[in-house]
Specification:
The complex is a heterodimer. By secondary structure, chain A is of the alpha/beta class. Chain A is 39% helix and 25% strand. Chain A contains nine helices and ten strands. Chain A has a six-stranded mixed beta sheet, sandwiched between helices. Chain A has a four-stranded antiparallel beta sheet with strand order 2-1-4-5, covered by helices on one side. By secondary structure, chain B is mainly alpha-helical. Chain B has helices at residues 2-13, 31-41, 43-69, 74-88, 92-107, 113-138, 142-150, 155-185, 197-208, 211-241. Chain B is globular. The chains are: A alpha/beta, B mainly alpha.
Chain lengths: 248, 245
């Protein structure tokens, strides 16, 4: 892993919402193929951090470089980076008026210029990968939460991104549906996808993460391998957080 | 029960005026009555054509005015507000007169009665359409835009494939209202000589001297038109709701 090039570099990134400082001087590297799990209490800036990577939030200070492209206000850099980065949201954000298949083919057809047949073939490929090819013609509301989130993952994969961002992908799910989504994510991780995952699922983090990042109050407090940070957290705040999460 | 409450005012009025009706002017069993009815009905074509043309134009203009109103740029929003506030403040009748009699003096462009009517109705309604669209689009959650951005859709495709199809479903009842409003307001175009329902009724009143019966028929004509439109809009709503969240 150490000899891989950096796919994402964040240098001294800061961001305010009004008076509230959401990110404080955040520096983080993600290498090609690396699986990074970010955890921390709510309001600690985890979501803001990954939303800055594809500029759903604009950072104010610092530098973000994704796959060699420096993120600026220019539409050009934005197009390149959003083409490289896929994102999965807590609330799925599927397009409710389109069928599952249409959700998946919209981007490939309009952005990548695929023909209808090519886009459909690609969509079915990824639906099979998330194990719901039989739901292709249904509307999102006809699916369970777990299925909807798997469709959302497939929708991102259809754009063939090099990096996948997951913003609390299981937080809106009923407990019995969390496993099916985590399974898909684990499979994706095994296939070598570069992933940044914001989650409270510590079992998943332990299994999958190459690097654990703990954030609190907009700062990165601790970074380490999953094994290191779980067995011997260096900071008191992380130790307290882990204890709280594992005991609840 | 509902229907009884509905009919009560009618029952109160009818006994007081029972002696004054002279239905013969519009009695379809007599030649003259049938001719009069046919004469009145011929106005429906222009009423419908004018209203539909105007509503199509006002929807397009309204959307084009609504979009800058949603911009993050202040200048765009200012354009939206100025347009809406000014156009909304002009009474339709005044606008019709201004377009038909005033515009030729100002610009040398003379519109015929039909297009002057359509222009005034569409312009007036576009301000309301703009507000309806703005509210409809604003009601779509931020997550839909973010999902569209995350798969690199540009602004145009995001609006066309993601936001507007959802917004239209939500504003359909309001659009139906505007169409009903348009059908009624088109009666004002009769003042510049447009041969539509109201104008035909006016002309008949002048020759037959039976305003009560003729205007009652006119009321019924509008009622039938509008009930048909309402039913159509409700049908469309049901159809679209079957594929809604």
């Amino acid at each position: 892993m150490t000899d891989q090039p950096n796919l994402i570099e964040m240098r001294g990134v800061s961001k305010h919402f009004g008076d509230f400082q959401a990110l404080k001087d955040v520096t983080l590297d993600v290498k090609l193929g690396e699986r990074v799990v970010i955890c921390g209490p709510s309001g600690s800036g985890k979501s803001t951090l990954i939303r800055c990577i594809n500029r759903l939030e604009a950072h104010e200070v610092g530098e973000i470089v994704v796959d060699g492209v420096t993120l600026t206000q220019s539409q050009d850099s934005l197009d390149k980076i959003r083409g490289t980065v896929g994102m999965v949201f807590q609330q799925f954000n599927l397009f409710p008026h389109l069928t599952v298949l249409e959700n998946l083919t919209l981007g490939p057809r309009r952005v990548l210029g695929l023909s209808e047949d090519e886009a459909k073939a690609r969509a079915m490929l990824y639906l099979e990968r998330v194990q719901i090819p039989d739901q292709a013609d249904k509307l999102p509301r006809q699916l369970s939460g777990g299925q909807q989130q798997r469709v959302a993952i497939a929708r991102s994969l259809c754009m063939e991104p090099r990096i996948m961002l997951f913003d609390e992908p299981t937080s809106a799910l009923d407990p019995e549906m969390i496993a099916e989504v985590l399974d898909v994510m684990t499979e994706l991780a095994t296939s070598g996808m570069t992933m940044i995952v914001v989650t409270h699922e510590m079992g998943f983090a332990r299994r999958v993460a190459d690097k654990m990042v703990f954030m609190d109050k907009g700062e990165i407090v601790e970074v380490g391998t999953a094994e290191d940070v779980f067995t011997a957290p260096k900071s008191d705040r992380f130790a307290a957080f882990i204890k709280q999460i594992l005991n609840h | 029960m509902k229907r009884v409450i509905f009919l009560m005012p009618l029952l109160l009025i009818l006994p007081g005026c029972s002696g004054n009706w002279g239905w013969y002017v519009v009695d379809p069993t007599t030649t003259n009555g049938a001719n009069n009815l046919r004469f009145m009905a011929t106005g429906a074509y222009n009423t419908i054509l004018m209203s539909l043309t105007a509503i199509i134009i006002s929807v397009i203009v309204g959307l084009l005015v609504a979009l800058p109103g949603l911009s993050e740029k202040k200048a765009w929003r200012a354009f939206n507000r100025t347009y809406v506030e000014i156009v909304r403040a002009i009474p339709i009748l005044v606008l019709i007169l201004w377009v038909y009699y005033g515009l030729p003096q100002l610009s040398g462009i003379t519109l015929n009665v039909f297009w002057a009517g359509v222009f005034a109705l569409a312009l007036s309604d576009s301000a309301f359409q703009a507000e309806i669209f703005r509210a409809g689009i604003q009601s779509i959650s931020k997550g839909q835009y973010e999902a569209a951005q995350s798969i690199s859709l540009n602004y145009r495709d995001t609006m066309r494939y993601v936001i507007l199809p959802q917004a239209i479903r939500r504003i359909l009842p309001a659009l139906g209202n505007q169409l009903v409003y348009m059908l009624k307001m088109s009666s004002l175009v009769s003042v510049i000589g447009m041969q539509e329902l109201t104008r035909k009724a006016n002309e008949l009143v002048v020759s037959e001297y039976r305003p009560l019966e003729i205007y009652t028929i006119l009321v019924l004509e509008y009622l039938v038109l509008i009930l048909i439109v309402s039913a159509g809009v409700r049908w469309l709503e049901r159809r679209m709701n079957s594929s809604e969240v």
